[in-house]
């Protein structure tokens, strides 16, 4: 029995145009032409039965021996096969067999016949057959070779694509823009710098005078190649020298500046663009959000809409990331509402961004609710949820989420283990963290990176297990860098381990002398044990190197506006009312046992002045403003750029007890939920 009898497709629903055409064929009113069939192929491309009906009609009409008609019919089979590749792979294979059978039965074949078959095999992931057909061709057709080069690139066979290009050169074949863009894509994806520059040299050597559009597409491919190879200067020079640029050129430059964190350059080129598209705006919005310019990202998102561009789901995701950074919950909720109305709520990228936004705005329950109701999840979704639970001190829940991920047969990646180890560190789960760290290599064949070692060092040191931490550092296959010594220093601060703390600080001074955090941590450690001379030396050392302490800044969202306060703030329009409220609150908090921790003030001033300094910390000002402005039942959510100090941490617990409200603080490390005089961190911060 012929293979065609083995597969039954659902009955077709004929469009009026296709029904009319088939009726004409069946009645043999006229002989079909290749051009007519090609047009109908667009209609029939989604309908498997139609391919066979058209084939039967062509045979009945007597036109099967006409080359142009057979070519069009082969094209119909190829298009149908491509459309069913993802959903019905067996039917795709069957349809390509039908195309090949038709090819074999043809009396005469032309260049289009061969090219259509080769391109069809490529589109249907059968590169072996495509190569077989190419090898059988009498003539070397550039378009056929280009199709196979493209196929090899799409399937990751980059060296095979490069070999094809070399063979084309050896045969003296004509190379066109698709040849060059195909081989450059192979060099880009495989990181073949030497080969890519050789291709560029070949282009220059030929001294061609091609049409501008030819060179435009090739130059765009070269731009991407040099950027991805880390050759920013060459890419920049090429861009500046291009006689013609299009949106692809501008977006390529914009995207690479954003990826490398060079936001000022990205802003410059964004403003210089003669025209923009949705992608241009999206790249810039996402870049601003991911590089700490959340407020600018939100402004640009609104400007995009004002200028008449309809944001795509990725633009919404970028704006949502901006809300995450700012802690702008109300603004994020507005965006959530908009994207639901626009039908973007099913977008995976948007859903993942919303999980992070709700978590980083202090509403981890909303993040989990969203996670549980999403129609589809990927590893990014699971990672975001595990990270959210860990940051909020729900380490046990984070571990359970990870175990559920494994039960769902989602393979963890390197980010997954970072989130799990962080969750263990935030909760002091040493044994669990060690087990997951070991499982990276034992169960999943992953080699832990420096960031994974740093998370493990952080976990061990915060638990006071310095001997184990030192042994782990000694076992590292790479030289310990900044993340390792930062984790060690932070743990030493918690437990007052001066000797190891000094060693870690010395390593950090060597590796990153301009960073203020190391000086501050070490001087605080000296102050804690009363080593004032050593503290003064660190401060002098800091001044000599021109290192300035980053000022503490806290902010809160009230009535859709973000209000920021600096330490000792005097410029906020309502700062007088804030200080007056703190004066009223002070005696009540003292009654509950608050004693200012003046040891944390490192200036040589009297005790009263030290207490005054502590009372003006930015997080205290921000909490007071929230208590004044938000409804009595609303939780106070504030955000801080640095780690919350010990004095403010103690003060927050007592304030939450006095005002009977939850105070949520996101500092530079984690979330703190203060309720009824206790904190969710359990002392791990």
Automatic annotation (TrEMBL):
Signal peptide region: none
One GO BP annotation of this record: RNA modification
Entry keyword annotation includes Cell inner membrane: no
The protein, known as: DYW domain-containing protein
SUPFAM superfamilies, sorted: TPR-like (SSF48452)
Each PPR repeat, start to end: 110-140, 141-175, 176-210, 246-276, 277-311, 378-412, 449-483
Family per record: Belongs to the PPR family. PCMP-H subfamily.
Keyword Phosphoprotein attributed: no
Keyword annotations of the record: Repeat
Residues covered by the DYW domain: 593-685
Gene3D superfamilies listed in its UniProt record: Tetratricopeptide repeat domain
Family annotation (InterPro entries): DYW_dom, E_motif, PPR_At4g14850-like_plant, PPR_rpt, TPR-like_helical_dom_sf
Organism: Kalanchoe fedtschenkoi
PROSITE patterns: PPR
């Amino acid at each position: 029995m012929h293979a065609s009898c083995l597969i039954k497709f659902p009955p077709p629903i004929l469009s009026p145009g296709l029904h009319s055409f088939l009726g004409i064929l069946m009645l043999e009113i006229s002989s079909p032409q290749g051009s007519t069939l090609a047009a109908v192929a667009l209609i029939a491309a989604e309908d498997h039965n139609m391919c066979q009906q058209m084939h039967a009609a062509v045979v009945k009409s007597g036109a099967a021996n006409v080359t142009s008609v057979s070519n069009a019919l082969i094209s119909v089979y190829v298009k149908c096969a491509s459309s069913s590749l993802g959903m019905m792979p067996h039917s795709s294979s069957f349809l390509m067999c039908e195309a090949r059978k038709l090819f074999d039965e043809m009396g005469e074949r032309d260049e289009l016949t061969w090219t259509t078959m080769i391109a069809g095999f490529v589109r249907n992931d059968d590169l072996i057959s495509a190569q077989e057909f190419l090898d059988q061709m009498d003539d070397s057709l550039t378009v056929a070779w280009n199709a196979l080069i493209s196929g090899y690139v799409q399937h990751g066979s980059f060296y095979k694509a490069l070999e094809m290009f070399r063979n084309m050169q050896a045969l003296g074949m004509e190379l066109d823009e698709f040849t060059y863009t195909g081989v450059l894509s192979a060099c880009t994806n495989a990181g073949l710098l030497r080969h890519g520059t050789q291709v560029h040299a070949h282009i220059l050597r030929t001294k061609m005078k091609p049409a501008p559009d030819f060179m435009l597409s090739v130059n765009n491919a070269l731009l991407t190649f040099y950027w991805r190879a880390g050759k920013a200067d060459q890419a920049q020079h090429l861009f500046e020298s291009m006689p013609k640029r299009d949106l692809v050129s501008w977006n390529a430059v914009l995207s690479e500046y954003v990826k490398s964190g060079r936001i000022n350059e990205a802003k410059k080129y964004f403003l210089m663009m003669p025209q923009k598209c949705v992608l241009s705006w999206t790249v810039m919005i996402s870049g601003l959000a991911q590089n700490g310019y959340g407020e600018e990202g939100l402004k640009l998102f609104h400007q995009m809409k004002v200028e008449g561009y309809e944001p795509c789901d990725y633009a919404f995701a970028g704006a949502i990331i901006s809300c995450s950074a700012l802690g702008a919950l109300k603004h994020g909720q507005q965006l959530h509402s908009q994207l639901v109305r626009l039908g973007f709520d099913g977008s995976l990228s948007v859903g993942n961004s919303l999980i992070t936004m709700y978590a980083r705005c202090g509403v981890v329950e909303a993040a989990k609710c969203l996670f549980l109701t999403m129609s589809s999840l990927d590893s990014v979704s699971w990672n975001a949820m595990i990270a959210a639970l860990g940051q909020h001190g729900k380490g046990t829940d984070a571990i359970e989420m990870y175990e559920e991920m494994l039960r769902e047969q989602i393979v963890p990646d390197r980010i997954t283990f970072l989130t799990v180890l962080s969750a263990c560190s935030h909760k002091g789960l040493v044994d669990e963290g060690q087990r997951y760290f070991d499982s990276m290599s034992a169960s999943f064949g992953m080699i832990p990176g420096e960031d994974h070692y740093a998370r493990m060092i952080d976990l061990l040191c915060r638990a006071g297990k310095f001997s184990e931490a030192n042994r782990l550092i000694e076992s590292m296959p790479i030289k310990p860098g900044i993340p390792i010594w930062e984790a060690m220093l932070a743990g030493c601060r918690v437990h007052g381990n001066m000797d190891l703390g000094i060693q870690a600080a010395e390593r950090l001074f060597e590796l990153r002398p301009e960073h203020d955090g190391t000086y501050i941590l070490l001087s605080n450690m000296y102050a804690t044990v009363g080593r004032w001379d050593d503290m003064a030396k660190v401060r002098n050392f800091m001044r000599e190197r021109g290192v300035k302490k980053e000022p503490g800044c806290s902010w809160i969202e009230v009535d859709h506006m973000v209000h920021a306060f600096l330490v000792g703030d005097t410029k906020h329009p309502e700062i007088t009312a804030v200080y007056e409220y703190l004066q009223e609150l002070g005696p009540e908090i003292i009654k509950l046992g608050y004693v200012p921790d003046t040891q944390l003030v490192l200036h040589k001033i009297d005790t009263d002045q030290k207490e005054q300094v502590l009372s003006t910390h930015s997080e205290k000002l921000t909490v007071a403003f929230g208590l004044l402005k938000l409804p009595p039942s609303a939780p106070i959510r504030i955000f801080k750029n640095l780690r919350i100090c010990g004095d403010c941490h103690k003060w927050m617990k007592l304030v939450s007890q006095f005002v009977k409200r939850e105070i949520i603080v996101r500092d530079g490390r984690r979330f703190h939920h203060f309720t009824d005089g206790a904190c969710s961190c359990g002392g791990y911060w």
